[in-house]
Amino acid sequence: MPRIKVIFVEDYNGDDYGNYDSRIVDSTTSWEDVSEEDYQFLRNNMHMVLAEFTKGYSSVRPVLIREDEMSVARRIESVKEALERQKAKREADAAALKKKQDDAAKKRKKKAEERERRDFERLKAKFENGKAAG
Following DSSP, what letter does each residue of the chain receive, concatenated? Predict the structure, then answer.
């Protein structure tokens, strides 16, 4: 059974980027055990809680909190692990991009060398034909 609590927060000090500071206005319930169905019902109908409590004040909104089985220490460790995975992925992506760029540069260099060799052979043949005729 989930343990839940409803709190009300007020958003204030918004900036041009859509960021807001929030503060807890009121905690209307203590932690309560509810059935999964009641939790889903309340979650799906939080707009009704908003209308009932706020009476038209748009800066206040209800937040349904579900108690987490994970300890704060484990949550911190989980976030650190996720950040490490993201960092490793970014580094792998950067290495793959560098390899792709290096391969493309090698290919361009090889094509340029082949073009120079063809030009050289063409000019060499032209020079030798000109010498033979003269």
Answer: --EEEEEEEEEE---TTS--EEEEEEE----EE--HHHHHHHHHTHHHHHHHHHTT-TTEEEEEEE--SS-HHHHHHHHHHHHHHHHHHHHHHHHHHHHHHHHHHHHHHHHHHHHHHHHHHHHHHHHHHHHHH-
Cβ 35 vs Cβ 1: under 8 Å = yes
- Tell me how far apart the alpha carbons of residues 65 and 52 are, in angstroms, rounded to a whole number: 18
Alpha-carbon gap, residue 126 to 134, rounded angstroms: 12
Question: The tokens of 29 are what?
Answer: 């319930």
Classify strands 21-27 and 3-12 as parallel, antiparallel or unpaired. Answer: antiparallel
pTM: 0.46
Structural tokens at position 102: 């290096």
What is the Cα–Cα distance from 128 to 131, expressed in whole angstroms? 5
pLDDT tens sequence across 56-86: 556 777 888 888 877 889 989 999 999 999 9
